DNA sequence: CTGTCCCTGATT
DNA sequence: AATCAGGGACAG
């Protein structure tokens, strides 16, 4: 699912085809809670706006527009952003949940799950936002006004420090895994990278946050940054629906050590990886390597 | 703080 | 036909 690395890969690949172009067409599906800003209003706000920059904060993408307003995009669980031509007569979904092959992506055509399509004045591909489960978000904010959901975020996980995690941990007796998933603590960490970071830091997912030492907090944040930086290089994790904007899979799913490896041998000690449900999320860990 | 809900496709 | 997966807002 899209977490910080996947959103960052998306940002990097989308920026060159989005920034500097002027929006001249906006197509949407019907009003739904996917559109925090209703489609009708969205069209009105976006039309004739030039995109000045594409930023990322946590798992949010923020497109800065030339009238100082901002378009927020969140990929939720199954969100996919594509940059592609609009030539294909039909959408060819590859088998199962594997999303789109590169050939298909280059000639992407919308299906019922494609909720937003942006067209531009300048030459180049269209932008497609597809999201099967509609846990993603599209929201527009007027110049000077901030997004409530963005304001609530803690430091971006790539810039955070062990001290910040340690301080947040003191007040909590919840499992450290829950703490890592809290976007108000470290923005951008999700289920995959929380498990991977805790494995590298050798801390069990169910350890109470206030029982995690200062040194371990340092190790956890360093580990999170290490796995996320590596994931960005490989194009992110294509475990459920995530694909890069050109339709190709990322590569980090092949490097994960614990996530969705229940019962498989630990890469370090061969002990079977175990699974626990914490905060309604599956959590994976090595019972021997992690204390 | 925990539980519920949104949604749809895959799995049981 | 019922259950599961899960990010995040919200209610309790």
Helical proportion, percent range: 25-40%
- Report the end-to-end length measured between terminal Cα atoms: 27 Å
Largest sheet: 4 strands, antiparallel
Question: Which range does the strand content fall in?
Answer: 15-25%
Please count the helical segments: 8
Shape label: globular
Low-pLDDT ranges: 87-105
What's the average pLDDT? 86
Polypeptide structure, described:
The chain has 291 residues and is α+β, with helices and mostly antiparallel strands. It folds into two domains: 148 residues, Alpha-Beta Barrel (N-terminal domain of MutM-like DNA repair proteins); 124 residues, Helicase, Ruva Protein, domain 3, CATH 1.10.8. 27% of the residues lie in helices and 20% in strands. It has eight helices and ten strands. The strands form three sheets. Strands 1-6-7-5 form a four-stranded antiparallel sheet, covered by helices on one side. It has a four-stranded antiparallel sheet with strand order 2-3-4-8, covered by helices on one side. Strand 6 and strand 7 form a beta hairpin. Helix 5 crosses helix 8 and helix 7 crosses helix 8. About 7% of the residues have low confidence. The chain binds a DNA duplex (12 and 12 nucleotides) through loops.
């Amino acid at each position: 699912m899209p977490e910080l690395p996947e959103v960052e890969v998306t940002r990097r690949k989308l920026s060159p085809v989005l920034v500097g172009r002027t929006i001249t067409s906006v197509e949407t599906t019907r009003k739904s809670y996917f559109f925090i800003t209703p489609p009708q209003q969205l069209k009105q706000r976006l039309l004739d706006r030039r995109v000045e920059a594409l930023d990322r904060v946590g798992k949010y993408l923020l497109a800065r527009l030339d009238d100082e307003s901002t378009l927020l995009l969140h990929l939720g669980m199954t969100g996919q952003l594509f940059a592609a031509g609009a030539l294909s007569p039909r959408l060819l979904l590859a088998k199962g949940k594997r999303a789109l092959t590169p050939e298909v992506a280059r000639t992407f055509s919308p299906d019922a799950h494609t909720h937003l399509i942006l067209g531009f004045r300048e030459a180049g591909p269209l932008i497609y936002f597809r999201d099967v489960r509609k846990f993603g978000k599209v929201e527009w904010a007027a110049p000077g006004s901030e997004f409530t959901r963005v304001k609530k975020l803690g430091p971006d996980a790539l810039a955070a420090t062990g001290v910040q995690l340690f301080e947040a941990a003191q007040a909590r007796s919840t499992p450290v895994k829950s703490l890592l998933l809290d976007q108000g603590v470290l923005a951008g960490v999700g289920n995959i990278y929380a498990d991977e970071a805790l494995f590298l830091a050798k801390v069990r997912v169910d350890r109470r946050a206030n029982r995690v030492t200062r040194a371990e907090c340092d190790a956890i944040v360093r580990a999170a940054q290490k796995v996320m930086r590596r994931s960005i290089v490989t194009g992110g994790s294509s475990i459920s629906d995530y694909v890069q904007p050109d339709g190709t899979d990322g590569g980090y799913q092949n490097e994960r050590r614990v996530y969705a490896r229940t019962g498989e041998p630990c890469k370090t000690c061969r002990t079977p990886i175990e699974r626990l449900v914490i905060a309604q999320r599956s959590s994976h860990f090595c019972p021997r390597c992690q204390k």
